[in-house]
Amino acid sequence: MSGLREKSFGIFCCLVLLVASFTSLYLRYVASLVPAHSLLVASEVTSGENLSINLDDTLNFGARQEVETRTSWKAPIIWERMFDPKLYDQKHIQKKSSVALTVFAVGRYLDAYLKTFLISAEQHFMLGLQVTYYVFTDQPDKVPHIDLGPQRSLKVIQVEKHSRWQDISMMRMKTISDTIESEIRHRCNYVFCLDVDQEFKGRFGSEALGDSVAQMHAWFYKAQKQSFTYDRNPKSKAFIESGDYYYHAAVFGGLCEHVKSLADHCFLGIMEDKLNDVEALWHDESHLNKYFWLHKPTRLLSPEYCWDQVISDNRDINVTRLIWAPKHYDTLRTK
Question: What phi, psi does 332 have (nearest 5°)?
C-alpha cells in the first residue's frame, strides 16, 4: 500500500513539473508577442506621466498643410508645429534616453569647423538628455576645449588621415560601426552621425529620436524624382534606378543597432565597389540612399534639421535648426 502511495506521489510530482514547465513556456511565448516597449514596470505605471504613451500618436500631421508630413509607409516627417517639445523631452528624460553624437574633424576641417560645431551643439542639441560627443580626428591634441553642461561628455578618438577626401568620407562608416560595437552601444541608446561643417542654430531635440532616422536633402525635398542624384551605374552596389526621397548623409541616426546596420551595409558596399574598381557617384551618401531604399527609415527629418542658407526659397522653413557652414573645398579638401 505504501508503495502505491509513493508511486502516486511520484506521478503527481511529475504532473506538477509538467504543468509548471508548460506554463512557463506559454508565458514566455505570450511575452514574445508583446512589444517590449509596451511592457511597463510598476514604477513607470505609478509615475506622474504614463510612459506607455506613444509620442508619435501626438503628432499633428495636419499642422503643415503646405508640406509632406508622412511617407507612403507612414513614417513621420518632422516639421515645426507638428510636435510638442515639452512632451517629447519629458518622456525621453523619464526614459533616461542617452545620445551619442559622432563627428569627424580630419585635416583642415578641425581648425575650420569643429569649435563652432561643438559650441553650437552645446546650445541646441538634445538639451536635457545625456549626450556623449565622439570626435574622430587625426590631430587629437588640437581638439578645442569646450565647457560642457551637466550629463554631457566628450571623447576624442584618433583616426587615420586618408590621402583622398573621398576615402575619408567613405571610410567613416567602418569607424562608426566599430565604435558602436566597442563602446557606444554600452553607453547610449541612440546615435546621431553628423558632418562637422555645420552649425546648430535652433532646437535639435528629442523629437528627432527614432529607430532609424534619415535626413531629407534640402536641395531635393521638393524636386522631381528624376532629378535625384542617385548612383545609376549598375556596376555599383549603390545603384538605384528610382527611389522614394533623396537623403543627405550629413545627418543620420537612430538606435545603435540600426545605425550599425546602416554603417555595415555602406562599408561593405564601398569595399565591394573598390574590388570592382567602381566608386559611387556621391560616395557614402550614395550607399546610404541605397540602404534607406531597401530598409525604409522610421523617421524623416525635414530640411529644418539641415538647411543650406544659399537656397533662396525658404518659405517652408519656420525654424532653422542646423545650417550648412560656408564651404571652402578648394582649400580644405585633399585631392
Answer: -95, -35
Give the distance, in angstroms, between the CA of residue 231 and the centroid of all CA atoms in the same chain.
Answer: 23
Work out the angle between the directed axes of helices 256-275 and 284-294 (0-180°, nearest 10): 120
Point out the catalytic residue in the list 80, 279, 285, 304. 285
272 is catalytic: no
Report pLDDT digits (tens) over 18-54.
Answer: 333 334 333 333 333 334 333 333 233 333 444 567 9
Q: Are strands 190-195 and 247-255 parallel, antiparallel or unpaired?
A: antiparallel
- Is the confidence at residue 4, as pLDDT, over 50? no
CB count within 10 Å of CB 174 equals 16
C-alpha 330/C-alpha 72 separation (Å) is 40
Please give the C-alpha separations between residue 168 and each of 144, 191, 308, 328, in angstroms, as whole numbers.
21, 20, 23, 17
Cα 133 to its chain centre, rounded Å, is 14
**Binding site for UDP-N-acetyl-alpha-D-galactosamine: what residues are annotated?**
104-106, 109, 195-197
Q: How would you classify the pairing of strands 130-137 and 98-104?
A: parallel
Q: Which amino acid, residue 201? A: K
> CA 213, CA 300: separation in Å to the nearest integer?
6
What is the model's pTM? 0.82
Binding site members for Mn(2+): 195, 197
